[in-house]
Amino acid sequence: MEKNLQSNEAIKKLEALVQEVGTCMFISSGKTARQNTRPMAVVDIDSQGNLWFFTNKFSNKVNDIVENSQVQLVFAHPARSVFIDIHGRASVETSPQYIAEKWTPLVKAWFPEGKDDPAICLIKVKADEAHYWSVEGTKVGAMAKIAMSAVTGKKLEEGVHGELHF
Fold it and tell me: Is the pLDDT at 151 greater than 70, yes or no?
Protein backbone atom coordinates (compact mmCIF):
# COMPACT_ATOMS: atom_id res chain seq x y z
CA MET A 1 0.00 0.00 0.00
CA GLU A 2 1.36 3.42 -0.94
CA LYS A 3 1.18 6.07 1.76
CA ASN A 4 2.88 9.40 1.04
CA LEU A 5 3.24 11.64 4.06
CA GLN A 6 3.59 15.41 4.43
CA SER A 7 5.08 17.84 6.98
CA ASN A 8 4.79 16.81 10.65
CA GLU A 9 3.34 13.40 9.80
CA ALA A 10 6.36 12.73 7.54
CA ILE A 11 8.81 13.85 10.23
CA LYS A 12 7.14 11.63 12.85
CA LYS A 13 7.27 8.63 10.49
CA LEU A 14 10.95 9.34 9.72
CA GLU A 15 11.78 9.56 13.44
CA ALA A 16 10.00 6.28 14.19
CA LEU A 17 11.67 4.40 11.34
CA VAL A 18 15.15 5.81 12.06
CA GLN A 19 14.80 4.86 15.74
CA GLU A 20 14.23 1.26 14.66
CA VAL A 21 17.38 1.21 12.52
CA GLY A 22 19.65 3.87 14.09
CA THR A 23 22.59 3.55 11.72
CA CYS A 24 22.67 4.27 8.03
CA MET A 25 25.12 3.95 5.21
CA PHE A 26 26.17 7.55 4.56
CA ILE A 27 27.18 8.05 0.92
CA SER A 28 29.10 11.06 -0.38
CA SER A 29 31.19 11.68 -3.46
CA GLY A 30 33.13 14.94 -3.27
CA LYS A 31 34.42 16.18 -6.63
CA THR A 32 34.61 12.72 -8.17
CA ALA A 33 31.85 10.41 -9.28
CA ARG A 34 33.27 7.75 -6.95
CA GLN A 35 30.93 7.10 -4.05
CA ASN A 36 32.36 6.86 -0.56
CA THR A 37 30.20 4.87 1.83
CA ARG A 38 30.46 4.45 5.57
CA PRO A 39 28.14 3.56 8.47
CA MET A 40 27.02 6.46 10.63
CA ALA A 41 24.62 6.74 13.57
CA VAL A 42 21.97 9.45 13.63
CA VAL A 43 22.15 11.51 16.83
CA ASP A 44 19.06 13.62 16.23
CA ILE A 45 16.21 14.44 13.87
CA ASP A 46 15.12 18.02 14.43
CA SER A 47 11.65 19.54 14.09
CA GLN A 48 12.33 20.30 10.40
CA GLY A 49 13.24 16.67 9.61
CA ASN A 50 17.00 17.35 9.33
CA LEU A 51 19.21 14.43 10.33
CA TRP A 52 22.28 15.12 12.49
CA PHE A 53 25.54 13.15 12.84
CA PHE A 54 28.70 13.73 14.88
CA THR A 55 31.98 13.34 13.02
CA ASN A 56 35.61 14.39 12.87
CA LYS A 57 36.04 17.71 11.05
CA PHE A 58 39.26 16.39 9.47
CA SER A 59 37.59 13.31 7.95
CA ASN A 60 37.21 12.46 4.28
CA LYS A 61 33.43 12.72 4.52
CA VAL A 62 33.72 16.36 5.60
CA ASN A 63 36.04 17.02 2.64
CA ASP A 64 33.49 15.34 0.35
CA ILE A 65 30.66 17.53 1.72
CA VAL A 66 32.68 20.72 1.27
CA GLU A 67 33.29 19.77 -2.38
CA ASN A 68 29.79 18.38 -3.08
CA SER A 69 26.94 18.71 -0.59
CA GLN A 70 24.76 16.02 -2.25
CA VAL A 71 24.57 12.87 -0.10
CA GLN A 72 22.51 9.72 0.18
CA LEU A 73 21.52 7.94 3.40
CA VAL A 74 20.41 4.30 3.22
CA PHE A 75 18.85 2.69 6.29
CA ALA A 76 18.02 -1.02 6.36
CA HIS A 77 16.79 -3.36 9.07
CA PRO A 78 15.65 -6.51 7.22
CA ALA A 79 14.64 -8.32 10.41
CA ARG A 80 12.10 -5.58 11.10
CA SER A 81 11.29 -4.95 7.41
CA VAL A 82 12.27 -1.28 7.66
CA PHE A 83 14.04 0.49 4.79
CA ILE A 84 14.63 4.20 4.14
CA ASP A 85 16.41 5.91 1.24
CA ILE A 86 17.16 9.63 1.58
CA HIS A 87 18.79 11.98 -0.93
CA GLY A 88 19.72 15.37 0.46
CA ARG A 89 22.18 18.16 1.02
CA ALA A 90 24.71 18.03 3.82
CA SER A 91 26.40 20.85 5.65
CA VAL A 92 29.12 20.89 8.28
CA GLU A 93 28.22 22.61 11.54
CA THR A 94 30.89 23.60 14.07
CA SER A 95 28.76 25.73 16.40
CA PRO A 96 29.49 24.92 20.06
CA GLN A 97 25.77 25.52 20.73
CA TYR A 98 24.71 22.78 18.28
CA ILE A 99 27.40 20.44 19.59
CA ALA A 100 26.18 20.94 23.18
CA GLU A 101 22.52 20.47 22.16
CA LYS A 102 23.17 17.22 20.29
CA TRP A 103 25.80 15.76 22.66
CA THR A 104 25.18 12.36 24.22
CA PRO A 105 27.56 10.44 26.50
CA LEU A 106 28.06 7.77 23.79
CA VAL A 107 29.75 10.32 21.53
CA LYS A 108 32.62 10.47 24.04
CA ALA A 109 33.78 7.07 22.73
CA TRP A 110 34.87 8.86 19.52
CA PHE A 111 35.72 12.22 21.09
CA PRO A 112 37.39 11.53 24.47
CA GLU A 113 37.94 15.25 25.11
CA GLY A 114 34.17 15.72 25.12
CA LYS A 115 32.22 18.59 23.62
CA ASP A 116 35.37 20.73 23.47
CA ASP A 117 37.36 18.26 21.37
CA PRO A 118 39.00 20.34 18.62
CA ALA A 119 38.16 17.72 15.98
CA ILE A 120 34.41 17.48 16.70
CA CYS A 121 31.74 18.77 14.36
CA LEU A 122 28.27 17.88 13.18
CA ILE A 123 26.89 17.01 9.79
CA LYS A 124 23.34 18.17 9.11
CA VAL A 125 21.47 16.53 6.24
CA LYS A 126 18.42 18.28 4.81
CA ALA A 127 16.38 15.73 2.87
CA ASP A 128 15.37 16.61 -0.69
CA GLU A 129 13.78 13.19 -1.32
CA ALA A 130 12.91 10.42 1.11
CA HIS A 131 11.33 7.04 0.41
CA TYR A 132 10.42 4.37 2.94
CA TRP A 133 9.23 0.77 3.03
CA SER A 134 7.95 -0.96 6.15
CA VAL A 135 5.63 -3.70 7.32
CA GLU A 136 3.01 -2.65 9.82
CA GLY A 137 2.27 -5.16 12.53
CA THR A 138 4.21 -8.21 13.68
CA LYS A 139 6.17 -10.86 11.79
CA VAL A 140 3.51 -13.40 12.75
CA GLY A 141 0.88 -11.11 11.27
CA ALA A 142 2.92 -10.73 8.07
CA MET A 143 3.27 -14.51 7.76
CA ALA A 144 -0.49 -14.89 8.29
CA LYS A 145 -1.12 -12.40 5.45
CA ILE A 146 1.19 -14.38 3.15
CA ALA A 147 -0.60 -17.63 4.01
CA MET A 148 -4.04 -16.05 3.54
CA SER A 149 -3.00 -14.60 0.19
CA ALA A 150 -1.74 -18.01 -0.95
CA VAL A 151 -4.99 -19.69 0.09
CA THR A 152 -7.38 -17.08 -1.33
CA GLY A 153 -5.39 -16.25 -4.44
CA LYS A 154 -5.64 -12.52 -3.70
CA LYS A 155 -2.57 -10.38 -4.33
CA LEU A 156 -0.42 -9.90 -1.24
CA GLU A 157 -0.24 -6.38 0.18
CA GLU A 158 3.41 -6.37 1.21
CA GLY A 159 3.36 -3.49 3.65
CA VAL A 160 3.54 0.26 3.40
CA HIS A 161 5.79 2.37 1.24
CA GLY A 162 5.82 5.94 0.11
CA GLU A 163 7.49 9.30 -0.02
CA LEU A 164 8.17 11.60 2.91
CA HIS A 165 7.84 15.34 2.19
CA PHE A 166 9.15 17.71 4.85
Answer: no
Looking only at the bridges linking them, the beta strands covering 36-41 and 23-28 are antiparallel
Phi, psi at 34, each rounded to 5°: -70, 130
Q: Are 122 and 99 in contact (CB under 8 A)?
A: yes
Domains of the chain: 5-165 (2.30.110.10)
- For residue 17, give every residue at least 6 positions away whose Cβ sits within 8 Å of its Cβ, in sequence order, or none: 75, 82, 84, 132, 134
Task: Indicate the pairing of strand 120-134 with strand 36-41.
Answer: unpaired
Give the Cα-Cα-Cα angle 128, 136, 52 (nearest 5 degrees).
35
Q: pLDDT per residue over 94-147, tens digit each?
A: 999 999 999 999 999 999 999 999 999 999 999 999 999 998 655 555 554 555
Judge contact between 41 and 22, C-beta under 8 A: yes
